[in-house]
Amino acid sequence: MFDDDILRLESDVPRVEETALEALTRLGFFALRTGDHGLDQFVLEMQGLVPCTLTEIVGDKGAGKTQLCYSIVAAFLRDPERKGGNIALIDTTGSYRPSRLLELLEKRWNMNKVHGAELLKRVFVRPANTSARLSSALDALIKAGKTSNVELVIVDNVGSAMADTLIDYRNSGIKNQVSVIRKLTKLALMGNWVIIVNHLVYWRVAPTPALGYKWINEIAHRIVITNDDRYCDVHWLKIFTNRTMSDDRVALELTTHGIKCFPEDETMNVLGYSQSQIMSTFQCTNDDYMFGNY
Fold first, then answer.
1. Where in this chain does the record put each RecA family profile domain (predicted)?
2. Lowest mean pLDDT among 51-65, 97-111, 182-196, 263-277
3. Which residue in 70, 95, 145, 173 has its CB near the most CB atoms, within 10 A?
4. What is the pLDDT averaged over residues 176-201?
5. What is the C-alpha to C-alpha distance for residues 199 and 186, in angstroms, rounded to an integer?
């Protein structure tokens, strides 16, 4: 009778399945940092910056997408656990400024310029303003493999480089997009963190990631940053894991020290919960695609 009670109790306990990688990430072993404790805790809880997974940071213009990437890069460079790791930054708009990274290292961690400049030598930048050049850059990274010691790959901004795929979208455009996504995914599965930056376009009033139906549905993991409707200096960050939306979000502020998370009590009492317009899911239907609604 006692054994039956135990079995009955065990059967009532919900079982949550997760891979070994997911378990280790949840425990913080593979967590990328941003340099802000509050944001790091949120990202860790939501499993927002995990290795072996293609992650897209998407958001409004001026919402802090590149600033978030810079914060991640700076935190990576100064992390003693990543001392031997390099960063490949594919710059599609010519906007990369090492001086911004250096300023962030100096102001957030009081690092002197000499030390900061030494760390920046681990950031390898390659321009790529078309889908063909982006594809070529990814091929080079895949071919180099672990010999390059690259552990973090960032593409800023993928929407800019891949814009030419929308010209003949239904034919060569989709094929080129799938090819690039497969290469990005391959880089991630090699054990790297792969982060791409994209912008929002407004489709049927609601915002959606640029580049159309196929691109939207091929990427399962997104970090979404939107501008607040009432406060110009407030931005909201949400995380979509495996195309699943959570209502949890954090309020952010952009500073010269990098991206900063507002404390929970300040967010609740001062800012309130003004609702930025965020789609419940970033998926289009086949009908939308067929009618060109992308």
1. 28-200
2. 263-277
3. 70
4. 96
5. 23
Range of the domain at 104: 29-290
In the chain, what is the straight-line distance between the N-terminal and C-terminal CA atoms, in Å? 61
Using an 8 Å Cβ cutoff, are 258 and 67 in contact?
yes
Alpha helices in the chain (DSSP H): 2-12, 20-26, 37-46, 65-78, 98-109, 113-120, 131-144, 158-161, 174-189, 212-218, 264-266, 286-290
CATH of the domain at 47: 3.40.50.300
**240 vs 278, which has greater pLDDT?**
240
Q: Is the dihedral of CA 125, 63, 135, 72 positive or negative?
A: positive
Contact 184, 18 (CB under 8 A): no
Q: Do the Cβ atoms of 23 and 31 come closer than 8 Å?
A: no
Q: Look at residue 276 and tell me whether its pLDDT is greater than 50.
A: no
For residue 218, CA distances in Å to 41, 147, 178, 222 come to 27, 29, 8, 11
Is 3 domain-assigned? no
DSSP code at position 146? G
Domain for residue 33, yes or no?
yes
**136 phi and psi, to 5 degrees?**
-65, -40
Q: If you average pLDDT over residues 46-53, what whole number do you get?
A: 89
Task: Tell me the two tokens of residue 2.
Answer: 């006692």
Q: Are 63 and 238 in contact (CB under 8 A)?
A: no
Helix 98-109 and helix 113-120: axis angle, to 10°?
A: 130
Q: Is 212 left (phi over 0), alpha (psi -120 to 50) or beta?
A: left
Pairing of strands 235-241, 244-245: antiparallel
Total structural domains within the chain:
1
**Residue 20 within a domain:** no
**What confidence category does residue 290 fall into, taking pLDDT thresholds of 50, 70 and 90?**
very low
Range of lowest pLDDT (150-154, 177-181, 240-244, 247-251) = 240-244
